[in-house]
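Per reviewer request, we include the raw input and output of the structure prediction for the construct analysed in the revised manuscript.
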Amino acid sequence: MGKVVVAGLLSYAVGVVVVAFAAPLYAKAGLVSRVRRDRWGRRSVPLCGGVGLLCGFACGLLFAHTVKAVAVVVVAAALFLLGTIDDAKGGLKPSQKLGVSLLFVAPLIPTGIYVNICFPYLGVVLSLLWFAGMAHAMNLLDNMDGVASGVGAVSALGLSIAALGWGEVEVGVMSAALCGAVLAVLVFNFPPARVFLGDAGSLPLGAALAALSVWATWREASGVLVSVLFPLLVLGVPLLDTLFVTTTRPLRGSRPFCGGRDHIAHRLAALGLSPRLVLLLFVGASAVATAGAVLARNNILWLLFCFLVVVAAGGVLAALLARYGQGGVRLRHIIKQKTAFLVAVFDVPLFGAAFLLAYLVRFGMTIPAVYHKTVAAALPVVV
């Protein structure tokens, strides 16, 4: 436990120092954000968050001496280079970045960081898509001051706590180092931001979180549900934002992976929320989902219940924002429809809780292990 805390604190200190020194150098070199109509920022800001993130994260190797830890840092460094090229020159298409990312995350597979299901090749493909997909999901989430770094810090902290609970000390150390490094960036990225993560920071952050989530949770094929649900909960916020924009944009005739001011954060701001309040809402939502995952990590039924609640709440939020969050409407006008709003938010958790409670009462406030698979299969259908 001691080296986990030290790793986090050291990573934080190194990250703060590196970002502070890099900011004027990046500004002088012209490595700053471009002011564009389809972006939130209205001023040029140094894109040096990534170098601080990578340097801080690499400090975890001082305490985790495993091939897997080295592989995660190497992959993060490769994606940092890819992001730096795009930050400096631009012009890389999303499909090109995704293709290169799939190649860059491949070194994780030989070290054993992948989903080892009954069909090995399928597990490898799914793992590569998860690693590269999360890198780009975090890249999409990095659309307003502090959002990606705040959510990333919460997710990394949750992974560290859960990993230690499972006895995966190396994962706990590397996750703590990542958390410290992201918090260091957040010091400068908090609204109004003095530095941005840029592609050089968001891509390695997403890939590192995805890799650590698989490393922490995977045991065997019989535990596949935990290995799927836990990462989805911990990283649910960037996934929700990605699903939101990739589904709503085609409906408006736009390309799903183009830039735009139509993310969840932008729509919340359009409802009258300040950038700081938007950040706090994102961090709070991520904290709730992550806390649920950590607390329920050893009970598949409660983990599934938490997942369904988060999916329901995310679906309601997405539906409301898709309809109202485009300017001209304020949040108070939505809340005024409180009956429909509360019914939509609380129906799923109440139905799920009632179903689980019925089983608990039937079996003396504990559900025998022999019924776990049956209840887990029935719960989504009942809800």
